[in-house]
User: Which sequence fits this backbone?
């Protein structure tokens, strides 16, 4: 069995993305709204910068943790009990990274979250137990989240 890989040129990615359930598409893209709103506040409302930074940091940590939960669910649905340790260990790492990001705060925390989302996207892209549509949907959603977090880290 070959490992899935990123290939945006052959049309499979776009077919996989188009095959995502409508609810996953709608809720996934709506989930970007808090990222975009907090990033916009950083740029457009300098007086609210601290609140916007905290909102971006907290939401980024929650989403990273949520994605770890997705990995946990995929692991318990697909692996035998004697082969669960490593997949479950990997699935809790996003929550720990999110927690650490909140503790270190501000720019360094936002950068850590952006890096965590990028690494998790790469790991999830290779996750054979995830549906192809899920892997494809992660690309634009992660790109939007990472861009928002990176903007916050740079401001």
Assistant:
């Amino acid at each position: 069995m070959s490992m899935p890989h990123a290939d945006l040129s052959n049309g499979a990615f776009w077919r996989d993305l188009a095959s995502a359930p409508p609810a996953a598409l709608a809720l996934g893209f709506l989930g970007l709204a808090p990222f975009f709103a907090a990033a916009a506040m950083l740029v457009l409302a300098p007086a609210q910068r601290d609140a916007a930074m905290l909102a971006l940091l907290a939401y980024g940590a929650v989403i990273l943790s949520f994605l770890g939960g997705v990995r946990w669910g995929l692991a318990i649905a697909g692996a035998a009990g004697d082969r669960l340790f490593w997949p479950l260990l990997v699935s809790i790492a996003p929550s720990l990274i999110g927690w650490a990001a909140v503790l270190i705060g501000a720019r360094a925390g936002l950068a850590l979250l952006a890096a965590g989302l990028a690494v998790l996207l790469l790991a999830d892209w290779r996750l054979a137990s995830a549906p192809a549509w899920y892997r494809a949907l992660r690309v634009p959603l992660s790109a939007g989240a990472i861009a928002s977090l990176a903007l916050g880290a740079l401001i």
